[in-house]
Amino acid sequence: MKKSKGQPIKQIEFLLKGDKWTLDIISHSKFAKLLEERNPETLAYTEFHKRRIVATDKHILEESTIMHELVHAYVGHLCLDAATMLKPEVLEEIYCELFTYNYKAMISNLKEIKRKLK
User: Quick one: which of 44, 84, 97, 116 has the fewest CB in 10 Å?
Assistant: First the structure.
């Protein structure tokens, strides 16, 4: 079935902290247009407000890239947008708590996405 214009090449749904998220794999040309103001080396990015991860189809989506974007998504759940003056030791504690209580779910999300990518 041919995708309509503007649709992802592949879309994977998964649950993250009880919310439905998607991983959208899009054409590299569309991805490049979306990344005009970002690092051209970027292979994927997370849009927390849309509950989605966007990746290019140009490269094989590596496990480390998927996990990197999942961490962005989990950090987004911490609602740190207003916390601009956190001391490094406080930020360290936040990340330690994040991984302590979410690492199993993160690994589960990673495995689910990898399985659905096949």
Answer: 84
Q: Is residue 4 part of a domain?
A: no
Q: Kindly provide the residue ranges of all beta strands, DSSP E only, lying in 5-99, ordered along the sequence.
A: 10-16, 19-26, 44-47, 52-56
Q: Output the pTM of the full model.
A: 0.83
Examine the pLDDT at 37 and tell me if it is beyond 90.
Answer: no
Once rounded to an integer, what is the mean pLDDT over residues 6-19?
91
Owning domain of residue 71:
10-117
How far is C-alpha 95 from the geometric centre of its chain's CA atoms?
A: 17
